[in-house]
Amino acid sequence: MRILLVEDEVRLASALKQLLKEHQYAVDVAHDGETGCDLALTDSYDLAILDIMLPKMSGLDILRAMRKAGLQTPVLLLTAKDTVEDRVTGLDAGADDYLVKPFDNKELLARVRALSRRTGQIAGGDAIEAGPFRLDLNTRTVTRNGEPLALTAKEFQLLELFMRNPNKVLSKEVILDRVWGPDADVIGNAVENYVHFLRKKIDEPDLPSYITTVRGVGYMFHPDPAAGRKA
Protein backbone atom coordinates (compact mmCIF):
# COMPACT_ATOMS: atom_id res chain seq x y z
CA MET A 1 0.00 0.00 0.00
CA ARG A 2 1.41 3.38 -1.01
CA ILE A 3 0.90 6.43 1.20
CA LEU A 4 1.51 10.13 0.58
CA LEU A 5 2.55 11.95 3.77
CA VAL A 6 2.59 15.76 3.68
CA GLU A 7 4.02 17.13 6.93
CA ASP A 8 6.25 20.18 7.38
CA GLU A 9 7.69 19.12 10.75
CA VAL A 10 10.74 17.25 9.46
CA ARG A 11 11.36 15.17 12.59
CA LEU A 12 7.72 14.14 12.85
CA ALA A 13 7.57 13.31 9.14
CA SER A 14 10.71 11.17 9.44
CA ALA A 15 9.34 9.33 12.48
CA LEU A 16 5.97 8.69 10.81
CA LYS A 17 7.63 7.47 7.62
CA GLN A 18 9.74 5.01 9.61
CA LEU A 19 6.69 3.82 11.58
CA LEU A 20 4.67 3.22 8.43
CA LYS A 21 7.56 1.48 6.64
CA GLU A 22 7.91 -0.88 9.61
CA HIS A 23 4.29 -1.89 8.98
CA GLN A 24 4.93 -2.64 5.29
CA TYR A 25 3.67 0.64 3.80
CA ALA A 26 5.52 2.47 1.03
CA VAL A 27 5.67 6.19 1.89
CA ASP A 28 6.40 9.32 -0.12
CA VAL A 29 7.00 12.47 1.95
CA ALA A 30 6.57 16.14 1.09
CA HIS A 31 7.34 19.00 3.49
CA ASP A 32 5.29 21.76 1.86
CA GLY A 33 1.83 22.01 0.37
CA GLU A 34 2.78 22.75 -3.23
CA THR A 35 5.06 19.71 -3.50
CA GLY A 36 2.48 17.57 -1.76
CA CYS A 37 -0.26 18.72 -4.10
CA ASP A 38 1.87 18.02 -7.18
CA LEU A 39 2.52 14.48 -5.93
CA ALA A 40 -1.12 13.91 -5.06
CA LEU A 41 -2.33 14.99 -8.50
CA THR A 42 0.34 13.35 -10.65
CA ASP A 43 1.02 10.05 -8.88
CA SER A 44 -1.14 7.19 -7.61
CA TYR A 45 -1.65 6.65 -3.87
CA ASP A 46 -3.82 4.38 -1.75
CA LEU A 47 -3.98 6.94 1.08
CA ALA A 48 -2.94 10.53 1.75
CA ILE A 49 -2.04 11.83 5.23
CA LEU A 50 -2.13 15.62 5.16
CA ASP A 51 -1.15 18.09 7.85
CA ILE A 52 -3.48 21.09 7.62
CA MET A 53 -1.02 23.86 8.49
CA LEU A 54 1.62 23.71 5.75
CA PRO A 55 3.88 26.27 4.03
CA LYS A 56 2.92 27.44 0.54
CA MET A 57 -0.42 25.59 0.46
CA SER A 58 -2.60 24.19 3.23
CA GLY A 59 -3.63 20.56 3.60
CA LEU A 60 -7.23 21.62 3.07
CA ASP A 61 -6.28 23.22 -0.25
CA ILE A 62 -4.52 19.99 -1.29
CA LEU A 63 -7.62 18.03 -0.32
CA ARG A 64 -9.92 20.34 -2.30
CA ALA A 65 -7.62 20.11 -5.34
CA MET A 66 -7.69 16.31 -5.14
CA ARG A 67 -11.46 16.17 -4.95
CA LYS A 68 -11.84 18.75 -7.74
CA ALA A 69 -9.63 16.52 -9.92
CA GLY A 70 -11.95 13.60 -9.22
CA LEU A 71 -9.51 11.70 -7.00
CA GLN A 72 -11.26 9.52 -4.42
CA THR A 73 -8.06 8.67 -2.54
CA PRO A 74 -8.87 8.32 1.18
CA VAL A 75 -7.48 11.31 3.12
CA LEU A 76 -6.54 11.51 6.80
CA LEU A 77 -6.03 15.05 8.08
CA LEU A 78 -3.52 15.80 10.84
CA THR A 79 -3.95 18.98 12.85
CA ALA A 80 -3.34 20.63 16.20
CA LYS A 81 -6.82 22.19 16.04
CA ASP A 82 -9.54 20.35 17.93
CA THR A 83 -12.70 22.44 17.65
CA VAL A 84 -15.90 21.06 16.19
CA GLU A 85 -15.79 23.77 13.52
CA ASP A 86 -12.30 22.69 12.42
CA ARG A 87 -13.36 19.05 12.15
CA VAL A 88 -16.49 19.96 10.22
CA THR A 89 -14.47 22.12 7.81
CA GLY A 90 -12.09 19.25 7.11
CA LEU A 91 -14.83 16.68 6.61
CA ASP A 92 -16.86 19.03 4.43
CA ALA A 93 -13.78 19.55 2.24
CA GLY A 94 -13.76 15.81 1.54
CA ALA A 95 -11.59 14.30 4.28
CA ASP A 96 -12.30 10.72 5.33
CA ASP A 97 -10.86 11.03 8.83
CA TYR A 98 -9.34 13.56 11.22
CA LEU A 99 -6.59 13.03 13.81
CA VAL A 100 -5.56 15.65 16.36
CA LYS A 101 -1.93 16.15 17.39
CA PRO A 102 -0.39 14.85 19.56
CA PHE A 103 -1.61 11.34 18.81
CA ASP A 104 -0.60 7.82 19.74
CA ASN A 105 1.12 5.79 17.03
CA LYS A 106 -1.26 2.89 17.61
CA GLU A 107 -4.22 5.14 16.88
CA LEU A 108 -2.61 6.45 13.70
CA LEU A 109 -1.98 2.90 12.48
CA ALA A 110 -5.57 1.92 13.31
CA ARG A 111 -6.88 4.88 11.30
CA VAL A 112 -4.60 3.96 8.39
CA ARG A 113 -5.83 0.35 8.46
CA ALA A 114 -9.44 1.47 8.56
CA LEU A 115 -9.00 3.80 5.58
CA SER A 116 -6.98 1.23 3.65
CA ARG A 117 -10.00 -1.07 3.67
CA ARG A 118 -11.69 1.33 1.28
CA THR A 119 -9.05 0.75 -1.41
CA GLY A 120 -9.48 -3.00 -1.62
CA GLN A 121 -12.31 -5.50 -1.50
CA ILE A 122 -12.45 -6.11 2.23
CA ALA A 123 -14.02 -9.24 3.66
CA GLY A 124 -14.05 -8.08 7.26
CA GLY A 125 -11.22 -7.41 9.68
CA ASP A 126 -7.89 -6.75 8.03
CA ALA A 127 -8.33 -8.99 5.00
CA ILE A 128 -8.74 -8.50 1.26
CA GLU A 129 -10.76 -10.76 -1.00
CA ALA A 130 -10.60 -10.98 -4.78
CA GLY A 131 -11.98 -13.96 -6.66
CA PRO A 132 -10.99 -17.17 -4.84
CA PHE A 133 -8.20 -15.44 -2.91
CA ARG A 134 -8.30 -14.20 0.66
CA LEU A 135 -5.30 -12.24 1.91
CA ASP A 136 -4.98 -11.69 5.67
CA LEU A 137 -2.97 -8.56 6.41
CA ASN A 138 -2.42 -9.42 10.07
CA THR A 139 -1.12 -12.97 9.73
CA ARG A 140 0.38 -12.31 6.27
CA THR A 141 -1.25 -15.46 4.92
CA VAL A 142 -3.10 -16.19 1.67
CA THR A 143 -5.69 -18.80 0.79
CA ARG A 144 -7.23 -19.82 -2.55
CA ASN A 145 -10.68 -21.35 -2.18
CA GLY A 146 -9.84 -21.83 1.49
CA GLU A 147 -6.58 -23.68 0.82
CA PRO A 148 -3.37 -22.01 2.08
CA LEU A 149 -0.73 -20.86 -0.40
CA ALA A 150 2.93 -20.68 0.60
CA LEU A 151 4.22 -17.31 -0.63
CA THR A 152 7.46 -15.51 0.06
CA ALA A 153 7.32 -11.97 1.46
CA LYS A 154 7.80 -10.38 -1.97
CA GLU A 155 5.23 -12.69 -3.58
CA PHE A 156 2.77 -11.70 -0.84
CA GLN A 157 3.38 -8.00 -1.49
CA LEU A 158 3.00 -8.50 -5.23
CA LEU A 159 -0.28 -10.39 -4.85
CA GLU A 160 -1.56 -7.74 -2.42
CA LEU A 161 -0.82 -5.03 -4.99
CA PHE A 162 -2.65 -6.98 -7.69
CA MET A 163 -5.64 -7.71 -5.42
CA ARG A 164 -5.97 -4.03 -4.51
CA ASN A 165 -6.03 -3.18 -8.22
CA PRO A 166 -8.14 -5.88 -9.92
CA ASN A 167 -8.59 -5.64 -13.69
CA LYS A 168 -6.20 -2.67 -13.88
CA VAL A 169 -3.00 -2.54 -15.89
CA LEU A 170 0.01 -2.04 -13.61
CA SER A 171 3.22 -0.99 -15.31
CA LYS A 172 6.53 -2.57 -14.37
CA GLU A 173 7.63 0.80 -13.02
CA VAL A 174 4.61 1.00 -10.69
CA ILE A 175 5.16 -2.57 -9.50
CA LEU A 176 8.84 -1.88 -8.80
CA ASP A 177 7.96 1.27 -6.89
CA ARG A 178 5.16 -0.30 -4.83
CA VAL A 179 6.77 -3.66 -4.04
CA TRP A 180 10.49 -2.89 -3.92
CA GLY A 181 10.34 0.83 -3.14
CA PRO A 182 11.61 3.85 -5.08
CA ASP A 183 15.11 3.61 -3.60
CA ALA A 184 15.58 -0.14 -3.97
CA ASP A 185 18.56 -1.46 -5.90
CA VAL A 186 16.81 -4.00 -8.13
CA ILE A 187 18.86 -6.12 -10.50
CA GLY A 188 17.70 -7.56 -13.82
CA ASN A 189 14.20 -8.75 -14.56
CA ALA A 190 12.93 -8.75 -10.96
CA VAL A 191 9.33 -7.98 -11.86
CA GLU A 192 9.15 -10.58 -14.63
CA ASN A 193 10.76 -13.20 -12.41
CA TYR A 194 8.47 -12.63 -9.45
CA VAL A 195 5.34 -12.54 -11.62
CA HIS A 196 6.49 -15.90 -12.99
CA PHE A 197 7.04 -17.27 -9.47
CA LEU A 198 3.65 -15.97 -8.32
CA ARG A 199 1.82 -17.43 -11.31
CA LYS A 200 3.27 -20.86 -10.58
CA LYS A 201 1.86 -20.70 -7.05
CA ILE A 202 -1.58 -19.15 -7.62
CA ASP A 203 -2.66 -20.41 -11.05
CA GLU A 204 -4.75 -23.55 -11.37
CA PRO A 205 -4.27 -26.37 -13.90
CA ASP A 206 -6.28 -26.08 -17.12
CA LEU A 207 -7.49 -22.57 -16.25
CA PRO A 208 -6.33 -19.23 -17.70
CA SER A 209 -3.73 -17.37 -15.68
CA TYR A 210 -4.93 -14.93 -13.03
CA ILE A 211 -2.18 -12.56 -14.19
CA THR A 212 -1.95 -11.60 -17.83
CA THR A 213 0.83 -9.75 -19.60
CA VAL A 214 0.00 -6.47 -21.31
CA ARG A 215 2.89 -6.43 -23.72
CA GLY A 216 5.07 -3.38 -23.61
CA VAL A 217 3.25 -2.04 -20.55
CA GLY A 218 2.97 -4.40 -17.59
CA TYR A 219 0.51 -6.83 -16.03
CA MET A 220 -3.16 -7.17 -15.14
CA PHE A 221 -4.73 -9.29 -12.38
CA HIS A 222 -8.07 -10.98 -13.12
CA PRO A 223 -9.99 -12.21 -10.05
CA ASP A 224 -12.06 -14.35 -12.44
CA PRO A 225 -9.64 -16.59 -14.36
CA ALA A 226 -12.19 -17.08 -17.13
CA ALA A 227 -11.90 -13.36 -17.85
CA GLY A 228 -8.14 -13.58 -18.33
CA ARG A 229 -6.03 -15.04 -21.08
CA LYS A 230 -2.81 -16.91 -20.68
CA ALA A 231 0.15 -14.70 -21.42
Automatic annotation (TrEMBL):
- Any one Gene Ontology molecular-function term assigned to this protein's record: transcription cis-regulatory region binding
Q: Single Gene Ontology BP term?
A: regulation of DNA-templated transcription
Q: Where is the OmpR/PhoB-type domain?
A: 125-223
Q: Which Pfam families match?
A: Response_reg (PF00072), Trans_reg_C (PF00486)
* Matches recorded under InterPro entries: CheY-like_superfamily, OmpR/PhoB-type_DNA-bd, Sig_transdc_resp-reg_C-effctor, Sig_transdc_resp-reg_receiver, WalR-like, WH-like_DNA-bd_sf
The Response regulatory domain sits at 2-116
Residues carrying 4-aspartylphosphate: 51
Gene Ontology CC: cytosol; protein-DNA complex
Keywords noted in UniProt:
DNA-binding, Phosphoprotein, Transcription, Transcription regulation, Two-component regulatory system
Kindly give the Gene3D superfamilies that the UniProt entry links to this protein: 3.40.50.2300, 6.10.250.690, Winged helix-like DNA-binding domain superfamily/Winged helix DNA-binding domain (1.10.10.10)
Residues annotated as DNA-binding region?
125-223
Keyword Cytoplasm present in the record's keywords: the answer is no
CDD domains assigned to the protein according to its UniProt record, in alphabetical order? REC_OmpR_CusR-like, trans_reg_C
Q: What is this protein called?
A: Two component transcriptional regulator, winged helix family
